[in-house]
Automatic annotation (TrEMBL):
InterPro entries: DUF484, GAF-like_dom_sf, GGDEF_dom, Nucleotide_cyclase, Rev_trsase/Diguanyl_cyclase. This is GGDEF domain-containing protein. PANTHER family: DUF484 DOMAIN-CONTAINING PROTEIN. The lineage of its organism: Bacteria, Pseudomonadati, Nitrospinota/Tectimicrobiota group, Nitrospinota, Nitrospinia. Residues 272-401 form the GGDEF domain. It holds the Pfam family DUF484. Gene3D superfamilies: 3.30.450.40, 3.30.70.270.
Length: 401
């Protein structure tokens, strides 16, 4: 209770002095001349209360104005986030989505650096797109990182990481047109209850992202981004599930006939060469029954080696449990033999610990067009079906055009 309220209470409740007569006696002994302010110039109790009410009114008015400004600002932020979320949830192309999100965040929030970092290997569709990232729209908005890097960023859990006063700049972002990135925030992207990556924002302002800054909206955007990534990968998987092998990510046998017919017609029309190499793991079924090995790891490793050693235009297939085929447009028999031997050597070297412990051997078969025995698609298709071409270790001259 303040002084004005005490005075008002005593004025309205004179019976108070019935319980404290000595206080009333003390008050009566005070002369008006002893007061520091003359009675006639002193504000009345009612005036004091009115003045306080006026001050409170002005204070409340100022608070309401501030709340209105905050509400309008939040409304604008929500509008911006709605547009960004719309891009996330309605995009069907992964790289296009990343590019549009980056552009919208930079335009709407004045952020100088925007990047989506995803864990390499989290999904084989993403990993499979890695070699083409430099030529795809939106590649500048994406970066693939390893699991250890992601855990190092968020070693304290799921909370966003804010860094400011970075000298001489951010290690994550390159120097922008406005200068080096001096503050950044990293928000984890959830996917099926796990961290799939991070949404990273950077600013040239060294104090823009700092500890204590509320990140509710950014975390919600990262959640929507995780949902969008899941949707895009799901649609990609549904689109390719009839064409791609679920273990290796290579084309499966159902796509082989279509691809062979298309490439053979193209080779004959433009008078080009076409070869096909089959790599067969020797005694695959026996190995699976007698050796303590991870069959899936072997298949994935072979597919990785094939992808690393093939050209952009080559087509890679897993046709049976332990069989792989590589369709080589524009490659004649001699070059196909050389490539086949190189693939065999790389696979056996990678999967066998040493010569004494070698357990995995690769058999090779090659079909090549034009060849004396292959003049049309039916001949080529029949040769593929039986795959009884010459062993590349035999005289390769008989395979040349």
């Amino acid at each position: 209770m303040n002084k004005d309220e005490v005075a008002l209470y005593l004025n309205e409740h004179p019976e108070f002095f019935n319980d404290y007569p000595e206080l009333l006696t003390r008050i009566k002994t005070i002369e008006e001349t002893d007061l520091p302010v003359q009675p006639l110039k002193t504000l009345s109790i009612a005036d004091r209360i009115l003045r306080r009410v006026q001050q409170d009114k002005e204070h409340i008015k100022g608070q309401l104005e501030w709340f209105m400004e905050v509400a309008e600002c939040n409304e604008r932020i929500l509008e911006h986030l709605f547009e960004i979320e719309r891009i996330c949830l309605y995009s069907h192309n992964f790289f296009q989505m990343a590019s549009e999100i980056r552009g919208e965040i930079i335009k709407r929030f004045g952020i100088h650096g925007v990047m989506i970092c995803l864990v390499d290997g989290a999904d084989h569709f993403i990993a499979h797109s890695l070699p083409q990232m430099q030529s795809r729209d939106g590649a500048e908005s994406l970066r693939l990182i390893d699991q250890a890097t992601l855990f190092d960023w968020f070693r304290d859990g799921w909370g966003p990481v804010l860094r400011n006063q970075l000298e001489p700049g951010s290690e994550l972002f390159d120097v922008t047109d406005s200068g080096p990135i001096r503050s950044e925030v990293l928000i984890p992207i959830p996917l099926h209850g796990k961290m799939a990556g991070a949404l990273c924002l950077g600013s040239v302002d060294p104090a823009q992202f700092h500890e204590g800054l509320r990140t509710d909206y950014l975390e919600r955007t990262a959640e929507k981004l995780g949902i969008a990534i899941d949707n895009v990968l799901l649609m990609e998987g549904m689109k390719n599930q009839s064409l791609l092998d679920s273990v290796t990510g290579l084309y499966n046998e159902s796509y082989l006939a279509t691809a062979v017919k298309r490439e053979f017609d193209r080779a004959r029309r433009y008078e080009k060469s076409l070869s096909c190499v089959k790599l067969q793991i020797d005694y695959w079924d026996d190995l699976m029954n007698t050796c303590d090995i991870d069959r899936y790891q072997i298949l994935v490793e072979i597919s990785r080696i094939l992808q690393q050693n093939s050209r952009d235009g080559d087509l890679l297939f897993r046709v049976n449990d332990g069989d792989f085929m590589v369709l080589l447009p524009g490659i004649c028999g001699d070059a196909a033999c050389q490539m086949a031997n190189r693939l065999k050597s790389d696979v056996e070297e990678a999967l066998n610990p040493g010569p004494a412990d070698a357990f995995l051997k690769i058999n090779l078969r090659i079909v090549s067009y034009p060849d004396s025995d292959i003049v049309n698609h039916d001949d080529f298709d029949y040769a593929l079906s039986v795959m009884d071409g010459l062993d590349p270790e035999e005289n390769s001259e008989s395979l040349s055009a």
